[in-house]
Amino acid sequence: MPKTLAQVLEAIAEADGEVVLEGTKAFLLLPPGMEGLVEEAREHGRALALLALEAPHRRLTPLALMALAQALEEGDLEGGLHALRRAAQA
Asked: Which top-level group of life is the source organism from (predicted)?
């Protein structure tokens, strides 16, 4: 069963992974042996790239991923994006 975007964000964060946007491509940085998570993340590739575009240095750290997952679960994506923008300005 496919995971929701919030579940994928949380799983990447728990694996101490990151999503990095370079140009127009998003890269998923994970420890070895996480092929299942890579496949699940591919299902949400465009959303991950768009979220990384809003992140400081176009990089979603584990902390940012967890905050976004929580915001999505609470139905407050706008609040999560606002937090990313504030962090980018700091």
From this structure: Bacteria
**Which backbone phi and psi does 71 adopt, to 5 degrees?**
-60, -40
- Give per-residue pLDDT as tens, 29-75: 999 999 999 999 999 999 999 999 989 899 999 999 999 999 988 88
**19 has which bridge partners?**
28, 60
Q: How many residues does the chain have?
A: 90
Rounded to the nearest 10 degrees, what angle do helices 35-42 and 45-54 cross at? Answer: 80
DSSP for the chain, written as a single string: -PPPHHHHHHHHHHTT-EEEEETTEEEEE--TT-HHHHHHHHTTHHHHHHHHHHSGGGEE-HHHHHHHHHHHHTT-HHHHHHHHHHHHH-
Residue matched to tokens 């694996």: 15
